[in-house]
Every structure is written in structure tokens, then in C-alpha cells.
């Protein structure tokens, strides 16, 4: 099958999909909508994947460019002659594809597109419904996003859910190590690598950490990433001796990331919006217990008191209290870590989960015939 894979940017997730597709019998073309200066995926597009040059792919997507890009996409379709287009997020790549009238379109949700963007205003709701009603098939990584897609007009029989998963051989439990330039003593190490954007709630974690650090001198925070909230987050964490207990590590490559999970005692994701979070799956695969916001997508992965813990979304005081509670029950972490790894093995094995997408391609062709 000749497939056009159309995505916003070249992210770690795109690399995962394209690498897996490169090892199939399909002829795969890759189309990129925009280029993000913060993008940190440093591995090249697999050689077997044919990258398509076109009018897009050089700057951020703008609504005023929609008609021009849709016209350019029609040209790409004429040249490539795909038998199926795999496109997402819903309101950008999939919407542009729907505007061309091409079928079959397999729309893939990226979580935030249905959990947040679709509810921005009437225009976004219209775009979402328009796109899904013209999609032959829909895939997502969580039940909560499938439910949203069905509410917007997607036929439930033309949907599939599969967690994007992780490489369990790469993300695995390892011996705890000290962070760069620091000796690992008795400190309790918290770890977060969510982007510093409003939807991911890292500011909530920052406020909670201040409360915890005021009570416990033995706690430290490893904070990866950057984002639009950088100034606010750094300001929250910059008071006095507090700054000495926070390590800002910036962006870390996928190659090095397991080592950072291995430095921590507890993974924290304070996200307000998510599908099945890949960073959460990575942490679980590394045997790292997780403390996460109690949004529906997280509850599909974390059982409170088994492989991690939950806290009320957006509540910094409650998050601080849960951190302190976990620190007081440090002996429970080993069992929670084993349960975390088992969760990943049973639910987040990318090599197994990828097969759902290949079956979805066939179902999309059948649905459009």
C-alpha cells in the first residue's frame, strides 16, 4: 500500500511511527506541515521513508494559509498518488486533508486536539466535526479521546484505540545513578519532563515543590524541558536555597532519557490535558512509580497505591501532600516500581501495539470502498 503520513512536525512520536512503517511492506511518504524551533528529535527520518518537499514544512501553521496549503496538498496527492493518507492532529493535518476531498483518510488524534483544542470556540468545534465526518477511520491512544471523536460524529465502528507505547528494551529498570555532578545521597528525587506549557501543569508542580522543600531538606527536583511558561516556573523555583535543590536540564535526547528516569525516585506528571502520555509510559517501563493528576487518561494507566498515585488536577497543595506522603512511605516504592514495569509490559509494548495501526489501515480501505 502507498501511504502518505502527514504530521505537524518531526517529533519523537513521528520518528517512532515512521521507523515502524519503514520495516513494513508499505511504500511510505512523509509530509511535514511545519517546523518548530524547539523540536529536539535528533534522529534522522528513516532512509526507507520518502520525504515530500512542498509549500509547507518551513514555518508554523497559520489559518490564513489554509486554502493555499490545501491546494498545495492536492498537488502532492496528484504526484504521490497515495492509496491512504494517515494524518493528524485533527484540526491541522487531518483538516487540510479533508478539505482536499481525498479518501480514505485515517485521522489520528494526538490527544490535545480533542481534549483541549476542539473546545476552544465554535470554529474549532466545526473544524473538528467536519474532519471526523469525512474520515474513513479514526485512531487514538486513549479511550477518552475515542469517546470525544464519536461525540463529534465519528462512527464508533470505524475507530481503534492503541497506546503508542515505548521500546521496552530501551526504557527499562536500571541501577540508580547520581545526577550529573551530584553525589546521590539520601535525597528523594522527583522527576518531570513535561513541556512547560499551560496544558501540562508544570507550574503546579513548581508550587508544590516549594511547599515540600520547605518541610523536607532531603528532596530534590530534576526538571527537563522548556516552554512558554519558563519565566514563571523559574521564578517560582528561584527563592533562596530552593534553587540549589532544582536541576534544570533542558532538553534530553531519547538516547539519554532512560538514564534520567534512573536517577529518580518518583515521576510526576501534573498535566491538565492528555491522551496516553508517552513520557508516563516511559517512566512506568523504567520501573519508576508515578504520581499524576487524576484526569481520565492518566487513570487508564495509574492505579492509586499500586503502580503510583493520583492527586486532584491543578491542586498544588494536594500534590505537595501526596509527595510528602510518598516520601514517608519510601519502603513502598520498590513494589510500586515492579507494578509500574508490569503495567508497561502488558499495555505499552510498542512492537505489539503497532499492529493495531496496520489493521486500521486495512479497515480504512474497506470502509472507503
Give a written overview of the molecule:
- With 369 residues, the chain is α/β, with parallel strands linked by helices.
- It has two domains: 2-165 and 350-368, 3-Layer(aba) Sandwich (Rossmann fold); 188-347, Rossmann fold.
- It contains 14 helices and 13 strands.
- It has helices spanning 12-22, 66-80, 90-100, 112-115, 122-133, 143-151, 202-215, 230-236, 257-261, 278-285, 296-299, 316-328, 333-347, 350-368; strands at 2-7, 27-32, 50-51, 84-88, 105-108, 137-140, 159-161, 188-192, 219-224, 246-250, 266-269, 290-293, 308-311.
- The strands form two sheets. A seven-stranded parallel beta sheet has the order 3-2-1-4-5-6-7, with helices on both faces. It has a six-stranded parallel beta sheet with strand order 10-9-8-11-12-13, sandwiched between helices.
- The two termini are 15 Å apart.
- Residues 179-184 have low confidence and may be disordered.
Element layout with pairings:
Blueprint: E1 2-7, H1 12-22, E2 27-32, E3 50-51, H2 66-80, E4 84-88, H3 90-100, E5 105-108, H4 112-115, H5 122-133, E6 137-140, H6 143-151, E7 159-161, E8 188-192, H7 202-215, E9 219-224, H8 230-236, E10 246-250, H9 257-261, E11 266-269, H10 278-285, E12 290-293, H11 296-299, E13 308-311, H12 316-328, H13 333-347, H14 350-368
Parallel strand pairs: 1-2, 1-4, 2-3, 4-5, 5-6, 6-7, 8-9, 8-11, 9-10, 11-12, 12-13
Helix pairs in contact: 2-3, 3-5, 7-8, 7-12, 10-13
The mean pLDDT is 92
Say what the CATH topology of the largest domain is.
Answer: Rossmann fold
- The gyration radius over C-alpha positions equals 21 Å
The percent of residues in helical segments reads 25-40%
Query: Sheet with the most strands?
Result: 7 strands, parallel
In the CATH classification, which architecture of the largest domain applies?
Answer: 3-Layer(aba) Sandwich
Number of domains: 2
- Estimated structural class: alpha/beta
Strand order of the largest sheet: 3-2-1-4-5-6-7
Question: Outline, from the CA principal axes?
Answer: elongated
Could you tell me the number of beta strands? 13
**Terminal residue distance:** 15 Å
CATH homology superfamily name of the largest domain: Glycogen Phosphorylase B
Range of strand content: 15-25%
Taken in chain order, the helices and strands follow as EHEEHEHEHHEHEEHEHEHEHEHEHHH
Low-pLDDT residue spans: 179-184
Tally of contiguous helical segments: 14
Amino acid at each position: 500500500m502507498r501511504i502518505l503520513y502527514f504530521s505537524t512536525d518531526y517529533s519523537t512520536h513521528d520518528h517512532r511511527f515512521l521507523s515502524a512503517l519503514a520495516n513494513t511492506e508499505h511504500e511510505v511518504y512523509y509530509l511535514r506541515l511545519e517546523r518548530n524551533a524547539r523540536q529536539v528529535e535528533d534522529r534522522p527520518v528513516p532512509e526507507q521513508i520518502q520525504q515530500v518537499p512542498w509549500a509547507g514544512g518551513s514555518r508554523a501553521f497559520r489559518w490564513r494559509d489554509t486554502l493555499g496549503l490545501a491546494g498545495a496538498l492536492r498537488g502532492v496527492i496528484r504526484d504521490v498518488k497515495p492509496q491512504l493518507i494517515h494524518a493528524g492532529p485533527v484540526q491541522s493535518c487531518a483538516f487540510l486533508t479533508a478539505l482536499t476531498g481525498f479518501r480514505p483518510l485515517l485521522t489520528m488524534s494526538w490527544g490535545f486536539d480533542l481534549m483541549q483544542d476542539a473546545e476552544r470556540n465554535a470554529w474549532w468545534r466545526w473544524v473538528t466535526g467536519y474532519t471526523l465526518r469525512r474520515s474513513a477511520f479514526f485512531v487514538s491512544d486513549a479511550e477518552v479521546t475515542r469517546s470525544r471523536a464519536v461525540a463529534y460524529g465519528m462512527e464508533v465502528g470505524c475507530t481503534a484505540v492503541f497506546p503508542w507505547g515505548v521500546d521496552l528494551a530501551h526504557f527499562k529498570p536500571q541501577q540508580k545513578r547520581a545526577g550529573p555532578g551530584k553525589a546521590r545521597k539520601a535525597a528523594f528525587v522527583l522527576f518531570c519532563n513535561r513541556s512547560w506549557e499551560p496544558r501540562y501543569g508544570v507550574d503546579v508542580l513548581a508550587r508544590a515543590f516549594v511547599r515540600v522543600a520547605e518541610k523536607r531538606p532531603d528532596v530534590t527536583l530534576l526538571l527537563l524541558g522548556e516552554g512558554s511558561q519558563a519565566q514563571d516556573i523559574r521564578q517560582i523555583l528561584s527563592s533562596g536555597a530552593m534553587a540549589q535543590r532544582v536541576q534544570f536540564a533542558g532538553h534530553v535526547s531519547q538516547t539519554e532519557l532512560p538514564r534520567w528516569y534512573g536517577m529518580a525516585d518518583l515521576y510526576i506528571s501534573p498535566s491538565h490535558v492528555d491522551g496516553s502520555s508517552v513520557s508516563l509510559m516511559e517512566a512506568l517501563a523504567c520501573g519508576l512509580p508515578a504520581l499524576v493528576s487524576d484526569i481520565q487518561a492518566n487513570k487508564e494507566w495509574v492505579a492509586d497505591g499500586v503502580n503510583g498515585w493520583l492527586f486532584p488536577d491543578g491542586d498544588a497543595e494536594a500534590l505537595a501532600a501526596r509527595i510528602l506522603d510518598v516520601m514517608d512511605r519510601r519502603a513502598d516504592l520498590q513494589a510500586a516500581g515492579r507494578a509500574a514495569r508490569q503495567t508497561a509490559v502488558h499495555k505499552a509494548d510498542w512492537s505489539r501495539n503497532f499492529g493495531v495501526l496496520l489493521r486500521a489501515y486495512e479497515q480504512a480501505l474497506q470502509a472507503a470502498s
